[in-house]
Amino acid sequence: MENVKYSGDMLKILFKKLNMSTTAEFCKKTKISRGLVDKLVANKHNPRLDTLQKIKNAFPQTNMNWLISGQGEVLEDVQDDDEVKLLEQYRSKIKSEANQRLVEKFSISVDYFVQDQIEMDELENNATAQDVKDQDLMFFRMQLLLLQYRRRLVSDLLLQVPKRGTLITGHIPGLKEKYSDLLDHLNNEILKTVKLV
Question: Does the model's pTM come out above 0.85?
Fold first, then answer.
C-alpha cells in the first residue's frame, strides 16, 4: 500500500472533532490496533492508505482530503442517497437554468410541500380523534388539497407583483395587499379544515 503525507497532530485533532473520549474507543470503531494508533499519534509512523480508509469507513464524516493533506475541513457533511438525489435534481433542473425566480419558486414550493404534509397529517389525526367516517374524511382531504393548491397559486402571484409598475400596466395600487389578504383568508380556511370545523 502507498504511504501518504501525515502528521500525528492530525489524529489528535480528529479525536477532538469526533468527541472521542478514549483512544481505545477509536481503535475499537476503526479496527486499528492500539499500537499503530499510538505510533501515529506520536508521529513515529505514517499511515498507509488502507489505515486511512478504515478511519473513513468508521467515521464517514471525516474529510479524506483533510486526513491525507491537511487541506479543507476536518469533518464534512455526510449525505444519504435521498439527499444526493434531491441535490442532483436541484442542480440539473433548477440551478442550471440560472433563473432567480425559478430558484425562489422552488424554495417556496419546498416550504409549502412540507407545510401541506404537516397539515394533512394533522387533519388525519383530528379525524381519527373525532371518529370521522371515511367518506367524510375523503371530503375533508379534497377540500384541504384544493385550498392548499389555491394558496400556492396566490403565493406565486404575490411573488410576481412588481415593486413598481410595468410599462404596460403601470402601478396597480393595492394589488400586493389584495393578494396578501387572500392568502390570509386561505390560511384561515385551511386551519378550519384541518381542525374539522
Answer: no
